[in-house]
Amino acid sequence: MLPRSEQQLFDKRDRGDRFAADAAREILGRAAAEQHRLESDQASSYSLEELEEMAAEAGISRDALRIAIAKCAYRPPPARGRWYERIGFSGKGLLLTAAGGIGLVGLMLAFPVLAWAFFWLTVAVGILILLGISPF
Question: Does 78 fall in a domain?
Answer without folding.
Answer: no
